[in-house]
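Need tokens for this chain, all 361 residues.
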Amino acid sequence: MENDYLHLTKEELLSKITQLEMEINDLQQLMGKVREHKHNYSEDFGLVVVAPIEGLVNELLINKEVFTEDEIRDIIESYKASMQMHGAYECLGWPVDIQLKRVKESMVPQIRKNAALYTSILQRKIEFNDKWLVGKLQMACDEATHLCENLANIEHFDYGAATPFSICTEIKKVFNDDRRASGYRGESSIYIDYLFGEFADLKVSMNEKGFRKYVLGNIIKNLHEHAFKEIDELELSHKIINKKFSWWTKFVVKLLPYSVRMRYMAMYKDVENFKIPEKRIRISIRPSQKDSQRVDIIIENNGKPFYGNIEKVFENGIGEGSGIGLYSAQQFLNAYNANITMFTNADNEYKVGFIINTPIL
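Here are the structure tokens for all 361 residues:
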């Protein structure tokens, strides 16, 4: 019998175990790739699949007259399929072969079908109630082909061709965009010091879009989800409380009895005087100590200290969240002969940082 292992010689048994270990290792690598790239595509997936169809459904609820009967039917059917697809996309517990089959045979065709619906609706130049909806639909159409190609080849992922670009310009753009998006009362609450000096015009060669997404995107996500998480929550709660103290509320309070008015004013004074800790990031560049054709890009912050094992933060599945972000950053950089490490300095203002070591042009 083929599976009668009791009758195998020691050498035959060892051979079968070695073969099994190789198959398990290949499967683990495939699972890692699928998990990593599903994580990396999650933002694109939201832009292409979730945001536009939710926008159309909301528009349908308040502005039904602008759509044809066929469009209404297609919107509802696409919404149902998209929400099912979104749920399936987030499910990492299924066997990898089922995940791949669903991605290729169900998700990719549905994304293309959605894009065709968005294109036909855009061609009619409808005036929507939601002024952002046209932009959402257009962005979905623009990104759908690229997302479908990536998902169709998810297990054979390629970060893309390397091209020269100004790394300092890219870093400033990405961090400034995030700073504007993270502002408080319309202003930024993140202070960034760029210390590029003689390296301000530095060029590197890797995939620029990939560097923005897999490296800078995951570092910024780490900042908000870990380093600045407590400060962000403080900032949000203070913003909500402060809204209650509008000029109208203050006017009404003046009509209240003295004792009530004094209690209110004391509470208002506490809110006004409360100082939210500053969020600071410092980004600098220095020559590599080991190679004159490489540099170290140092991104450090004054957020909460890190007490975990810095040797393991770049391993797949390590961390409080999905455990994929920093692993993905490392995988991307390794593909272009670069690398990333983490350091801590609890006694310094900037307590935690990342060092990207990369070759330069």
